[in-house]
Task: structure prediction
Amino acid sequence: GLTGATSIGMVKLMEDAETGSAVNSYDFTVAGSADELTPKLIQGELDIAAIPANLASVLYNNTKGEIKLLAVNTLGVLYIVTKGIEINAISELKGKTIYATAKGSVPEYVLRYVLSSNGVDPDKDITIEWKSEPTEVVALMSASDSSIALLPQPYVTVAGNSVEGLTVALDMTEEWNKLNNGSTLITGVLAVRREFAEKYPRQLGAFLEEYKASTEYVNANVEEAAQLVEKFGIFKAAVAVKAIPYCNITYMAGEEMKSAVSGYLQVLLDQNPKAVGGALPGDDFYYAY
Result:
């Protein structure tokens, strides 16, 4: 998994694995970026990875179907935050400057899609200032009297702790849902190597049951889960305890997953085919058990 929202849901399972109370035997790795995990998954050093949803599609296309999708583990984690400016609707962003990170990846596609769907031209009606890291955006907001930014959790919580007068103005997951396009804003998924899935269906089924229980534990026991988030090096408990309720940690599999993910990937494909690996994955992308 990655050091961010997409790994939070599995901390109870990580703890159970360490104490020997999990059904299967697991070896977990938490990495700073997806680039560290991707080669290991393709080469078979890892069997299952919690990665961004569109990356799973890219890997499926690049490996000609060797990667499958097990479940959705994180819905949208993007928020519009403001300081010294009141924003109550997407349309009110017209004429404004927004700080954002991750140009050329999902946050940009989400922002552009939601803006244009609300009659705001992302190229003409607003100015997007791209920064390399969320921490850079937080520093800029701290130093300014009035600013707007697109930030993911847990950085929204980090910003709330360090930027005086910061307001969470808009939840991009809610804004996406208002568009009623039959899809869901998705951040993270569980992907598996096809060879592993075919070889060990029983163990994989047990893993998914344990993983689902872990996500339910995290959402129901935020304080205890936050301690585990810090223990496993994902991020600090003080941030996690505030961020978890806004990280949209979930477990979605089967037909529900297929419908949500395929609609989401279609939105990305329409904006930039490269975002999903050039084409929508086939039905064999979606694991059924």
Observations:
- The beta strands are 48-52, 67-75, 78-83, 97-101, 127-131, 147-152, 166-171, 186-193, 249-252.
- Residues 78-178 form a domain with the D-Maltodextrin-Binding Protein; domain 2 fold (CATH 3.40.190.10).
- The first strand starts at residue 48 and ends at 52.
- The chain has a mean pLDDT of 93.
